[in-house]
Amino acid sequence: MWADAIVTLIKLAVVIGVLLTTVPIMVWVERRGSALIQDRLGPNRVGPWGLLQPVVDAVKLITKENLIPDGVDHFLYILAPFIALAVALSTFIVVPFGQGDGLTLFGSKIHGFIVAPDLNIGILYIFALAAFGVYSIVIAGWSSNNKYSLLGGIRSSSQMISYELAMTISVVGVLMASSSFRLDQVVMAQTGTWLGFIPKWNVFPQIIGAITFMVAAFAETNRLPFDLPEAEAELVAGYHTEYSSMKFASFFMAEYINLVTSSALIVLLFFGGWTLPGLTIPHGWAGAILSLVIFAAKVAFFLWFFVWIRWTLPRFRFDQLMALGWKVMIPLAVVNFLWVGVAMALGIL
Amino acid sequence: MTASRTETTMLPQPQVDLLPKEGVVAVEHGVDGHTVLTVEREHLLDVLKSLKETPGLDCNLLADICGVDYPERDARFDVVYHLGSLEHGHRFRVKVPVTEDDATVPSAYGLWKAADWFEREAYDMFGIRFDGHPNLKRILTHEAFHGHALRKDYDPSQRWLLTEENLMTPKWSTGEQKNDDHLDTQVLNLGPSHPATHGTLRTVARLDGEYITEAECEIGYLHRCFEKMSETHGWEQVIPYTDRLNYCSSMINGVGYALTVENLLGVEVPPRAQVVRVILSEFSRIMDHAVCLGANLVDLGALTNFWYFFQIREEIYGLLESCAGGRLTVSYARIGGLAHDVPLDFEEHVRSLLARIPKFIDDVDKLVTTNKIFRDRTEDVGTISGEEALAWGWTGPCLRASGIPYDVRKAYPYSGYEQYDFDVPVASTGDTYARYLVRMEEMRQSLRIIEQAIDNLPPGPVITDDHHVALPPKEKVYTEMESLIWHFKLIFDGIKVPAGEAYGFTEGANGELGYYIVSDGTGHPYRIKVRPPCFAIYQAFPHMLEGSLVPDAIAILGSLNIIAGELDR
């Protein structure tokens, strides 16, 4: 019993540790990557290739004066960044990140590389928490007592509600195909190949669903081209205009953690998780580490994809974003799950 | 007569028999080729109306309105209107003398909307009232400012306490207001410190949701008294100040000023200086457009393109620096030519830039021009028709984007622009996307001009040998008595421009950049009025906003390229 608890705690520590380490790494990738795309150098003074820049930034943010502007609603103003960070960190507990079957630690079974292995609602839990995340932005926008923040908060709530629908519906096809809400089961259902060379990843039969999900993921993480809640040129900094020091950093970290979660979900739902076609991952620790590496590489690719898109595309206008969400994304997601249903009935899938 | 100004001084002339007679006290022919009408105030509107509406005269462009103060005269002020006809090419200067006690003239707003801000400026600076103006209040100075700064008897050392309390507040911006659904609307201040107002521009907007129902702009945050300062400086000393007008293309401002003074002086500019002026002006135009488009794209969220364009700008700054020593503010033009010759590797440098710049333009072109998101953001956004744009006094790329092919370089060639083969790009839709397309193409056309110019860069001096205007070369000063005297006289007395007046206009990056210069024969300009192209453009902005969204406001603002330095002077 206590061993189980320790294993879970270790897993939790590892997940939070990895997530919080990914943030500075992503910040570095974002800055150096944007510089690469934009024909600039990017931060290159602190540490080799500027690698220590995010560390210095973190120190700066932590040691900055904790400023609370006049006229804000104190309680909500402070609460908002906490909600953002807490939600971002807790979604990851149902995300499996490697093949850990049959492994033991201190004589206790690991039950896979997932913090909450027995939570059978899996993906639903993620959506539920992600929906909760919108509160942080609305509360931040409202409590800041700033018109720009308010506009950002309002934009954000309507944007997230709209795109959550498309996101949820686009996943239905995957859930039908793998008959489970649990993400490790979703990955298991994607092992093997069709015709010997096409990996049995959901992206191939459900390309529409995959694209819808990815677009919705951009919208959910408030990244360009959907960064309207914080559209710099229009709303100064949107909902976090009035935030500084660690409270600002919490929003910032939450955004990057959400980015990692979204990339992980894209990989798990549509790109076969830690599987590779033609590769049977052996049991035991060697296989576990191999699966971790594959998974990390795939997630890294999508993280880079997020960066790449951000520095390539301009931003939507708000009404265009809503039109896209309701008139294009949701119908496409519905088409996807209808197609999966028909294909399953006909025995193709 | 100067080579550089010949073309302008030979402006097309109007048919004399068409000119209005009633109320016209005098008709003269200015050294700048303008037909100068002195008009009685009672008949001003009739004269303006007949200049605008008589077939054959058709003055559809109101370029400028300004005041001039002659304290020793009975009728102390002249109100000066500069009019032009795009079809016929002739230009008018209409002058109305008014007395100090009764400094009122009827407003021309009913004829040209362009009069809106120009009249407010004349009111602000001289206290001349315009009867019938819809919103006559201060524009460049603060609401609580006392006196009228450009009057000759205004003491510039006075200081006023200007506080936030008397900020410009439009009448509609106070109090609660409900929309059609009985929901609250709110008033939002965009600027003066806002990421999208590149410079210090303030727009007050009433928002219904995110729709703008009413808007008004406040300018003047960057007012630096350019015109007042010029009156106490020597003719050459004004040039560094002109750099700070449109600081994105400072070379063009300096050249425009020099051309106007050269016109008054009747000085000839050597051919080499003319060609170098053209090359550097066109490079400046490319920079200006690059900054405008880059900033416009940043506001739409496409930061990468901004850096591509800034690379161009950086490299052109390298060229300007090698010629002038300065980068942003070059101060390279001189009355009669250039400060000094270009460096030895100039030609090579220009050619290497010519080879490199198209790549960056093409990169942005590929990333943006056909991008669906970009087109959705810009097409049918901030649309303005050709007639309306002209009525507001628009010129330059923004006017051409609305389908009117008016370019000073083609219509009134100066500095030898008639020798170069280039096209004037025109778009028809008049929206933000059209303005983007026009600027992109103009950059390419500028490269064409530079290519032809660098192929024909003549050798020779770069400044006139008229030593009333330009210092003799140093080696002559040390060896010849006469040169030493010229040197001495110029250093101590400065250039003496003969009494007279001229309106010189060139194609600035934003449109017609005009300098109306009055000289009284002393070592200082008596009055310099700059006609900044974006001043006319920006006055239409609040009207374009009504009914559009906040993000549209940002897109439109970026596409107009409002440079606060030029706007506020």
Describe this structure in words.
The complex is a heterodimer of chains A (349) and B (569). With 349 residues, chain A is mainly α. Chain A has one domain. Chain A has 11 helices and 4 strands. Chain A has helices at residues 2-37, 53-63, 74-90, 122-143, 147-178, 183-188, 207-220, 232-235, 245-270, 285-310, 318-346; strands at 104-105, 108-109, 193-194, 198-199. The radius of gyration of chain A is 21 Å and the shape is globular. The two termini of chain A are 41 Å apart. The model of chain A has no long low-confidence stretch (mean pLDDT 82). Chain B has 569 residues and is an alpha+beta fold. Chain B has 2 domains: 3-131, 2-Layer Sandwich (Beta Polymerase, domain 2), CATH 3.30.460; 231-455 and 496-568, Cytochrome-c3 Hydrogenase, chain B (Orthogonal Bundle), CATH 1.10.645.10. Chain B has 20 helices and 15 strands. In chain B, the strands form 5 sheets. In chain B, strands 1-2-5-4-3 form a 5-stranded mixed sheet. A 3-stranded antiparallel sheet of chain B has the order 8-9-10.
Oligomer: heterodimer
Q: What is the strand content of chain A? A: under 5%
The profile of the biggest β sheet of chain B is: 5 strands, mixed
The span between the termini of chain B is: 31 Å
Kindly provide the radius of gyration of chain A, computed on alpha-carbon positions and rounded to a whole number of angstroms.
21 Å
Mean of all residue-level pLDDT scores of chain A: 82
- Unreliable stretches of chain A, pLDDT < 50, 5 or more residues? none
- Text of the CATH class of the largest domain in chain B: Mainly Alpha
Number of helices of chain A: 11
Q: What is the count of DSSP helices of chain B, taking H or I runs of 4+ residues?
A: 20
| Largest interface: chains, residues each | A-B, 27 and 29 residues
Describe this protein with a few key phrases.
heterodimer; A: 349 residues; mainly alpha; two-stranded antiparallel ribbon; two-stranded antiparallel sheet; 11 helices; 64% helix; globular; B: 569 residues; alpha+beta; Beta Polymerase, domain 2; Cytochrome-c3 Hydrogenase, chain B; 2 domains; 5-stranded mixed beta sheet; 20 helices; 15 strands; 39% helix; disordered N terminus
